[in-house]
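Q: Convert this sequence to structure tokens.
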Amino acid sequence: MGDSFSLSTTDAEATVEFVGERGEVLDQRRAADAPAIGDERALTYRLTGGETLVRARIRDRDGQFAWTAAYRVEEAE
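A:
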């Protein structure tokens, strides 16, 4: 994962919330505001250093939700 968490979607109307360990929303992005690469929109959350895990909740244009797996953040040595 490095210093960021990224995903892509083909739904330009999707909204992505990057969520922390206790369910707190770390950041929210609209796919329409993300750069397009072909049909896909790439959304990235830059880690701030206090996260222990990050996952994403994606809401599509129809209001349906999907979650990514949770990714554990390792401390830099």
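The chain has one domain: 4-72.
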